[in-house]
Amino acid sequence: MEWIKEEERRIPVISNVDVLIAGGGVAGIAAALAAARLGAKVLLVERYGFLGGMATAGLVITVPPMNNGLQLEIAQRLQEMGAYASLKSLSEYYSKNDVSAYTHAFDPEALKLVSIKMLKESGVHLLLHSLIVKACVENNTIYGVIIENKSGRQAIRARVVVDATGDADVAAFANAPFEKEKFENMLPVTLMFNITGVNLKEFYNSGFNLSRIREIIEEGVKTGKLDFKLKTKPTKNAPGVYAEATIHEGEINVWGGSLEGIDGTNAEDLTKAEIITREEAWKLVTFLKREVPGFESARIEYTATQVGIRETRRILGEYTLTIEDIKNKKSFKDIVAKPYLHSTIAVPYRCLIPKKIDNLLVAGRCISVTSDALPPLRTIPACISTGQAAGSAAALSVSNNVKPRMLSISLLQESLIKQNVDLGFN
Ligand SMILES: Cc1cc2nc3c(=O)[nH]c(=O)nc-3n(C[C@H](O)[C@H](O)[C@H](O)COP(=O)(O)OP(=O)(O)OC[C@H]3O[C@@H](n4cnc5c(N)ncnc54)[C@H](O)[C@@H]3O)c2cc1C
Predict the structure, then answer these.
(1) Which among 29, 104, 127, 165 is the best mutation to test ligand 1's pocket, defined by most ligand atoms within 8 Å of the CB?
(2) pLDDT tens across 158-205, in order?
(3) 161 C-beta closer than 6 A to ligand 1
(4) Window from 13-27, 45-59, 93-107, 328-342 with minimum mean pLDDT
(5) Which domains does the chain have, with CATH numbers?
(6) In Å, what is the CA distance from 1 to each residue of 239, 275, 402?
(7) Which is it for strands 42-45 and 125-127: parallel, antiparallel or unpaired?
(8) Do 90 and 5 form a contact (C-beta atoms < 8 A)?
(9) Dist. CA 173–CA 47, nearest whole Å
(10) Residue 90 has pLDDT above 70, yes or no
């Protein structure tokens, strides 16, 4: 390979904070809110011009119920805007057997707005359109994080960094150990999109059901009416082709099929995935319009800003949660998060602490779990919970002047319980 050598240069330090939150997906939003509310000076850096990550940019808008801690608070704020609801009533109206009856849904545009409002109310400083590209490390401590944006290359100093990039970018830049499946074993990627103009009543009255949309597509492929290249069947914890109603009448949210062999930390792979999945989405909707009652006036309302990435790097933390832990309902003295209220899955604090680096915590889908244990822990509510725990731990480490790995667990747990987080203690 040909190389060029970058010239040495001085980089301006634009911010010096207690806690830097890297990435503004749901985990980063929760981490920033929790840290700022505990009195830390917090900066959140996000590469896009809006927050939410997969929950907005990825158009992942259906969730298991969000019912404790910041999960609940965010759901309530969305509800006040008429932008969060259980799909139960909708589904019952159309079909008694629809699986979407057990799901909640939100409007991604409302999440973009409400997250910024909440961060502002809590005093979090926000820097959008900025990509984190490097972590400068000395004596196992990150002393600067480098970002690139339209203003050039800039540096940020922070006493504690929370990596909520989904891909553990900061941990990787800091040379903290991580795991990544071989690309052929990684969970598949999926382009999510919304279709509008659907007459669901007519669709159901014609004997169809949203949860059977996969069969309709497969039938189209079988009869030669649809040339579709992506996997339609559920594989590796991805539903293939799938659809849910949304909170808006006439709109459905579609999982546009599974594409395997894509590494979400490789730009060539991501480019390939964007090209293939967008082409297939258009074909799929054209087929539905032509062949399926209720879809005659349907059109793609919008596709996700980027293809949906389920899994990339996971840090190797002080503890790695396994599928056996989940199956055995293993309890941990240092529990700091659960994916949902009353869940038997416990996330110990050690899963958020990477090995080797002293002032780094990790939240969201890149925490220290094995690949097969990831599915319940990468849901949106679970990422909010690990974000809340990591942000709280970061702020408490700063105020108590200790390294995150030396923080008193009982202090952290007491704080989380005060924040209405369910840790299973009575
Ligand atoms: C197709 C698909 C379907 C899913 N279905 C469901 C579902 O039905 N229900 C459910 O609950 N969950 C579902 N999930 C899982 C869930 O959406 C995600 O796991 C979760 O939203 C991840 O949140 P996060 O904050 O950890 O990461 P992300 O959402 O990935 O957020 C990371 C943020 O960091 C930013 N960022 C990344 N790198 C950098 C950098 N270097 N510099 C600056 N910013 C950076 C990103 O732009 C992003 O905003 C699904 C996921 C996919 C892909």
Answers:
(1) 165
(2) 999 999 999 999 999 999 999 999 888 889 999 999 999 999 999 989
(3) no
(4) 93-107
(5) 13-180+312-418 (3.50.50.60), 184-303 (no CATH)
(6) 39, 26, 44
(7) parallel
(8) no
(9) 16
(10) no
